[in-house]
Amino acid sequence: MGKQPFQTAYQHSYEYIRDKILSGELPRGTKLVEERLAEELGVSRTPVRESIRKLEQEGLIKQKRVVNPTDTDLRNIFQVRILLEGFSARCAAAYMDEETLQKLQGCITAARHGDIEETMRANKEFHDLIVQSSNNPEMINIIDRMQSIIYLFRKTVVYHKRPFLIDEHQQIYEAISAHDGTAAERLMQEHLQADLDFCLHVLRR
Predict the structure, then answer these.
(1) CA 137 from chain center: how many Å?
(2) Residues 6+ positions from 186 with CB-CB distance below 8 Å
(3) Phi/psi-derived region of residue 65, left when phi > 0, alpha when psi is between -120 and 50, beta in every other case
(4) Average pLDDT over residues 183-202
């Protein structure tokens, strides 16, 4: 198999498995069988195996099973986000330019008036723009590797309509816009802590 066909098969396998996990078609705790997935996809086991490995790195799969995060797992993941995104918000207050600030406000408007999928996209872009403002490739890379697991929690807070979600984005935007790094960092940390508390509450039901 040449490089291009393998890359295509790998990308297709990765997206197929990831999307089935994120949509809930593969419920938490499901054991992944390489042979069955390869048959479903019409590819060899190698791209499937590589896809599973990547999804393990991203935190969606653990020991060949769809991750079923414990309270401790959730707290650990959010601890990293609170530290890194809080610091990114502080950086954004110092460095974010006018054009990016307008995009940030656009995300808030889109989330307020959009449907669930539009709110999901706007929510992701809001956080991405702030993380990018850290200008720290290592931090951006760490958050990037967590995107799939972050998506699961973002889906929880958006689909279950966490109160004040967009209002908190507005407050973070205003602190960044006013170049108040201390307030921006504190508000982002409180925002993510509220996300964590909400996710824990929903998952315990």
Answers:
(1) 17
(2) 86
(3) beta
(4) 96
